[in-house]
Structure formats: C-alpha cells, structure tokens
Design goal:
By secondary structure, the chain is α/β, with parallel strands linked by helices. The chain contains 14 helices and 14 strands. Bound molecules: adenosine monophosphate (AMP).
C-alpha cells in the first residue's frame, strides 16, 4: 500500500512527497482509516513505528478539507522533547496547508508563555502540550477548547508513570464531551486500560508488536562513504576465518555487484536474489546451510523467516529502508541463544534511517569510523 491510496488532500500529499514518505508503516496503515472514520482508537505502538504520522496525517487531512479558525486538536504528551518533535513533524506534513500549530511545554521564558497564551486565545488549530503547562494556562481562563474535535494522548503509559493522571483527568473537564479520542501507548498496563475505559467511547484497538533483537547479538555500525564500503567489507571478511556470514544489500543489482567484488577478492561467496530460478536459489541455500559456502550475499528475500543455524555474522551492506527489516535481518544470527554479531554500514544518506532503527529497538548502537 502507498500513501496516495489514502487520497489525502493535494496540499497534504505534497507535504508527504516533500518528506519522501511513500509507504505507510503498519501502524499508519491500520490507524489512519479508523481515525478518518471518526472512531475512537487505542493503539499500542512504540516510538519508531511511525505512530506520530499515524495520528497527525488523518487529523491534518480533515483540517485541510475543512479549515478552521479554532483549536481543533489537542495532543497531550509527557515531555517537552516529544512536544517539540511532534510539532516539527507536523510542520513538515502541513507545510503546504494552512494549518497552524504550537507546542506548549514548561520551563520556557516569560515570552514563550505570552506566545502560548496568544496561540491558545486565537485558536491555533493544533496544540501539542505537556499536562502541567497546559493546566497553568487553563487555570487562567482564556483557553478556548469549545470547538475541539480531537483529543490525542501520546505515550500514555509514560504520562501515567510520570504522575500526570490527575492533570489529565482535570484537563478533560475543560474539553467538549463530544470529540474523537485517540490513545497511543507503548504498553498496556491495567492503569491504561482503566484510563481508556474512562475516556474513550467504543474504541477500535490496534496493536503493533515488534520483536526486539535477541540479547546474544553484538550490534555495531560503521559510518562510511559509499566508496569505502567495499574496502571495509573485504577487510572485515579477511580479518578472521568465518564459517558462516550473511551479507544483506537492498537491491538485486547491488547484490550482484558486491558478489563479483568479493569473488574477485578470492572469497568463497555466493549470491541469492529474485533473478535466480527457484531451483538455483534452493541450491545456493543448501550450500550455505551445510557450510560449503561461507559467505552469502542476499537481498531481503532472506531476511524473514528462513531458519539457518549458526550464522556468526550478519553484515548490512546498507541500512534497510524498513526499520523492522533490520530486526529481521540481524535475527538471522544468534538464533536459539547462541552468540552472533551484526555490523551495519551507514552512509550519510542513511543516517536518518538508522536513527529510526535505534528508536525502534530502543538502543543506541556503537558507531566506528573506517580509515
Ligand atoms: P515515530 O515512531 O513517529 O517517532 O517515527 C519514527 C521515525 O520514522 C521518524 O523519524 C519519522 O520521520 C519516520 N517515519 C515515520 N513514518 C514513516 C514512513 N511512512 N516513511 C518513512 N519514514 C517514516
């Protein structure tokens, strides 16, 4: 599925195009139609899954269709960092629309409080706020939420952990009864189930499960230019005698080129990609399984599901486009509690993609340089 299949308003689609968002992530694919359909929603999804766009895009589409002079959407978040991050994403998506927004969070200067007051009085379309700061404004009496149509609670579990439950309950009393409520949370403890029962009406539920990489995998990465990649991979593969190494690259052309490169460097290597006949693929796989072939270069056709034992090392010659593919790729090693290693090559253009992977697995990976 592609974003264009949602038939968003042209101005919103233009924003997505300029951000190079083409394919929705699973949480986006599932949440967007529900939100467009005005249903309440509980979504279990972590940072890194694309949850921000999952709730922003349908709201922005409704606003692009029916522009408003009032505050239409309130997003409540646990931290100022998240408020800023959501507002930045929003500004990207809504660049070609007339939607206005403001992030409201504690710890700023008197000037920022005045700016927030103005936005709240004049009815900025989307307000992204931390609970404590929003309460300070609400207590002053000028906040206009009477036209509010959407309430979004992001990282709800974290907000409860941080003790914001009373603030949230109080904030709700300032909002219209009839509205669409969306609750996003990385986990679903009893306290969230209770909160959801109180706030949501007949909600739809979605849950995006991600599996974390096995603990036995030692993950590292190299920051490299494209020109350095071949030299680096050869130096890694010649460093020691590996029994079983799986190398992933994103396109079949790159797989073919890399295969020729490693072959001419005297390495025992085979390649697998979709241009091979089924019989040839099986043959290559068999050779790799029984350790006749030490190094196999593959596209993502091998990253999901295939169970090969004792792979010592997985090399990502480039960063996979889909963060979950990273988990699938490196999951080929360290199966059944053995030890394994995964090394990823990151060029300049792939740095954002890798950041998304780190968010998804909730861990920063050590990055080395190669000279
Ligand atoms: P989030 O889980 O909302 O924090 O998003 C994690 C990262 O993924 C952010 O850097 C987004 O810009 C990026 N992202 C989200 N959805 C997509 C998509 N459909 N295509 C490409 N990048 C995306």
């Amino acid at each position: 599925m592609k974003f264009i299949d949602f038939n968003f308003e042209p101005a919103l689609q233009e924003g997505l195009d300029s951000m190079r968002f083409e394919n929705p992530t699973p949480v986006q694919e599932q949440a967007i139609p529900i939100i467009l359909n005005n249903k309440d929603l509980i979504a279990v999804a972590q940072t890194g899954t694309g949850k921000t766009a999952a709730f922003l895009l349908p709201v922005l589409n409704k606003l692009a269709k029916k522009p408003s002079d009032h505050t239409n959407t309130l997003v409540i978040v646990p931290t100022r960092e998240l408020a800023i991050q959501i507002d930045q994403a929003l500004q990207g998506f809504s660049y070609f629309t007339s939607t206005s927004s403001l992030a409201i969070f504690g710890g700023g200067t008197g000037i920022s409080f005045e700016n927030e007051k103005r936005a709240l009085t004049q009815g900025a379309n989307i307000i992204i706020a931390t609970p404590g700061r929003l309460m300070s404004h609400l207590n002053m009496g000028y906040v206009k939420f009477d036209q509010l149509e959407h309430l979004i609670l992001d990282e709800a579990d974290k907000m409860l952990d941080m003790g914001f439950v009373d603030d949230i309950t109080k904030i709700i009393t300032y909002l219209p009864k009839k509205k669409q409520t969306l609750l996003f949370s990385a986990t679903m403890p009893q306290s969230i189930v209770k909160l959801a029962k109180k706030l949501l009406v007949d909600p739809e539920q979605i849950s995006i499960a991600i599996s974390k990489p096995a603990a036995g995998i030692v993950q590292s990465a190299y920051k490299v230019s494209n020109q350095q990649k071949n030299k680096l991979i050869k130096s890694i593969l010649k460093e020691k005698e590996y029994n079983s190494v799986l190398v992933f690259s994103s396109t079949k052309q790159k797989v073919k080129d890399l295969y020729s490169e490693l072959l001419s460097a005297g390495l025992k290597v085979k390649a697998i990609h979709s241009d091979l006949e089924q019989k040839e693929r099986e043959e290559v796989l068999r050779g790799f399984r029984n350790k006749q072939t030490q190094i196999l270069v593959a596209t993502d056709i091998l990253s999901r599901g295939i169970d090969i034992e004792d792979i010592e090392l997985v090399i990502n010659y480039d960063v996979p486009g889909d963060a979950e593919d990273y988990i699938h790729r490196i999951g080929r090693t360290a199966r059944a509690n053995t030890k394994g290693a995964a090394i990823t090559f990151i060029n300049e253009q792939d740095q954002q993609k890798f950041l998304r992977i780190e968010k998804l697995i909730g861990k920063e990976i050590e990055k080395k340089t190669f000279v």
